[in-house]
Amino acid sequence: DVKVTQSSRYLVKRTGEKVFLECVQDMDHENMFWYRQDPGLGLRLIYFSYDVKMKEKGDIPEGYSVSREKKERFSLILESASTNQTSMYLCASSLGRVHRGAGTEAFFGQGTRLTVV
Amino acid sequence: DQQVKQNSPSLSVQEGRISILNCDYTNSMFDYFLWYKKYPAEGPTFLISISSIKDKNEDGRFTVFLNKSAKHLSLHIVPSQPGDSAVYFCAAIDFNAGNMLTFGGGTRLMVKP
Q: Does A110 sit within 8 Å of B43, measured CB to CB?
């Protein structure tokens, strides 16, 4: 079974703090993604990565950065946390870009509920 | 502008009956569609998918229908069970733009015993 593990289930941080959310996958997937989930808005893509040291902006990258130094690890960084970044953060991984059709579904971690106070 | 929309935020169904969850999309370049199920405080889990070259895919109690001309897909669950109560997300992929998923807003399904 594919396993995507996020380092924390719940986090509470203060406004202005630098926050690191860690994600590790064990299936040698090339693609990794960070989404945030907010009520009524579904899952919105923050950043994604197709390979080590590669990153691409998603739909809502402002206020975030990412790091992918190793294939299995994808970190999301909130440079200076703000209250509007209170959300559920979800990491996912999937097979590489050359794959199409069946098998390209993304596998998600359990999520990190971040509260910024 | 949302490219994938789920217009019903919630749906309530009696156990044993059919649940029909709907999804509309605007991007004609999408070539693969997926449904995910999400319980509270857990990550989404993949349920079923369909390629744009098909109009139906079935897996046990779950069937996904795709109407490409209407840019509409639906998930049918028959028979519905209380354990199916969750939030269901529709998602789409444009492989030429990369393998990232574009999600709808979700529909909360409640199956009453």
A: yes
Of all residues in chain B, the one with the smallest CA distance to A102 is B49
Chain A CB contacts of B31 below 8 Å: 100
Chain B contact set for A101 (CB, 8 A):
32, 51
Strand partners, A23: A6, A74
Tokens of B94: 């444009």
User: How does residue B43 score in pLDDT terms, banded at 50, 70 and 90?
Assistant: very high
% of chain A with per-residue pLDDT over 90: 81
Strand positions, DSSP E, A1-117:
4-6, 10-13, 19-25, 31-38, 42-49, 56-57, 64-70, 73-78, 87-94, 107-108, 112-116
pLDDT in tens, B7-19: 999 999 999 999 9
Residues A6, A2: Cα–Cα separation, whole Å: 13
The pLDDT score that the predictor gives to residue A1 is 67
Q: How many angstroms separate the CA atoms of B22 and B11, rounded? A: 10
